[in-house]
Amino acid sequence: MPTPKRVTMVLYGPDRQLWTGGPTQLTVQELRPEGPRLLEKTSLAKGSSTVEVRLDVPFDGMQRYGIRLSADGHRSTIYVLRHQSFLRQDGTDIVERDDIILRLLMMPNRPSFEDLVNGFTRLRDAGSPLTPASKEEFLELDDMEADVPARQLVLLNLDAKLRATRIDGKSLLSFVKALQYVEVDRLYIAVKPELKELVRRAGEFASAPGHGTPSTPIALPAHPDSWKHTKFDTGNIQLSFSETTDTSTGSPAFSVDVDIDLEKGIGHVFEWLRNNVLTPGHKTDQTSIYSLLWPQNILPLYTLGTRARAGKAKARGRAT
Predict the structure, then answer these.
(1) Are 223 and 211 in contact (CB under 8 A)?
(2) By C-alpha distance, which of 75, 147, 78, 79 is closest to 107?
(3) Which of 239, 228, 203, 233 is nearest to 293 (CA)?
(4) Closest to 147 in 3D by CA, of 317, 297, 309, 12
(5) In CATH, which of 3.40.50.80, 2.60.40.1120, 2.60.40.420, 3.10.290.10 is domain 5-105?
(6) Which residue among 65, 73, 90, 291 is the one 20 to 30 A from 188 at the CA level?
């Protein structure tokens, strides 16, 4: 018989305060190649910010279990559990625990973005090499089609992710020389040449498919040499490097395509994640990425509001 695992979930809203909404639906599924198998489905009372689940299932191999929390007017909040989720460092030993505490974030379908415009000042004050040239430029980083400031979100999400991810004892952000271009789901940056070899040798990065030449307004190269971070169950950073360096930043630098990937490549898990996180057209929704960073203790330089946004023109008016 498997040793029961206890999972305690503490729920927060996008303002990083304890969740007071609901009622909330909790679903636990085994993520199998032939499709998810339902293990538990429970309704939580309105205002429930803490919930505990006991799992009498095996965690001794490649099993994956998906937790999904949903509430009316909110995106699904998801988390993938596996054997490694219960392993902890104890001195020089790795020990297995029978319990885990998860901090999960409930994201409205249409959060408000009042605090987002302050991200420029915070990037500048933090000395981030990803700081746009001006606040006006930062405010223009929008996805006009969807009326969502997706490029602002991806810039701040990836600044936080690069800042928190370390290699050779240094933050990935410390290797960034310049911001090249911002897309709705990724950044293009110029980095110091030594980073490519460090990533290639790092045990926490695994080889991944690269990318061709992007169709950006500025000329950028293909990025065929790619590695994905493997530390987390979901929301790992992927770095795709150009084949050679150039000197457009004044000294040799690689161009890097940076995005946050959902999972480590197990197909049936990815399908489950895609159904819960990706928007139509398979662009990763950046407010959902905000939710994925939260359990990793990574806090982007902005918060989101619980009140549904009233439109871009009004939000811009508040920013002035």
Answers:
(1) yes
(2) 75
(3) 233
(4) 309
(5) 2.60.40.1120
(6) 291
pLDDT in tens, 291-313: 889 999 999 999 998 775 554 44
CA distance 206 to 187: 20
> What are the residues facing 143 on neighbouring strands?
148
| Torsion angles phi and psi, residue 307, rounded to 5 | -80, 135
pLDDT single digits (tens) 28-86:
998 888 888 999 999 999 999 999 999 998 887 788 898 999 999 998 888 888 888 88
Residue 271 carries which side chain, given as an amino acid letter?
E
**What global pTM score does this model have?**
0.85
Under 8 Å CB-to-CB from 130, ≥6 apart: which residues? 123, 155, 158, 159, 162, 173, 176, 179, 187, 189
Report which of 138, 112, 103 is spatially closest to residue 123, judged by C-alpha positions. Answer: 138
